[in-house]
Amino acid sequence: MEKKLAVASSDGNRIDEHFGRARRFRVYRFEGGNWLYEEDREGLPPCAGGAHSDDLLDQAVDRVADCRWVVVSQIGPGAIDALIARRVLPLVLKGTVDEALTLVGKRYLGTANTT
After folding, report:
1. Which whole number is the average pLDDT over 23-32?
2. Cβ(37)–Cβ(23) under 8 Å?
3. 37-85 pLDDT, tens per residue?
């Protein structure tokens, strides 16, 4: 599996989306000691108005299934289980996307490079 990370962010700068309400995930790839922006992946969020759709949850998990990590501001137990079953580690973090890239780089990849 490539070293990819998906971030639930409404503006591309802050980690501010709940996994189940995220319409977009920004995907980064770790290559040559640096994080490189790869693409935005958009879709319908699985949770809306207090209800959730299992089909949309599966689709959201599929959108990030090639990533090793997904960074969110919040996540429910069903989404955690679905991600872990696909070997994706969910991380609940606050702050900016750059801070998340730095943290994941330090903790899991032994580097502090962000971009």
Report:
1. 96
2. no
3. 999 999 999 987 777 889 999 999 999 999 999 999 999 999 999 999 9
DSSP-derived 3-state class of residue 49: coil
Q: How far apart are CA 102 and CA 99, in angstroms?
A: 5
- Which amino acid appears at position 1 of this protein? M
Q: Residue 76: which of 1, 12, 4, 21 has the closest Cα?
A: 21
Going by C-alpha positions, the residue among 18, 4, 6 that lies closest to residue 46 is 18
DSSP state of 87: T
- Domain with 13, as residue range(s), is 4-109
If residue 4 lies in a helix (H) or strand (E), which one and from where to where? strand 4-8
**Number of compact structural domains in the chain:** 1
Q: Establish how many alpha carbons lie within 13 A of residue 51's alpha carbon, considering only the half-sphere containing its beta carbon.
A: 2
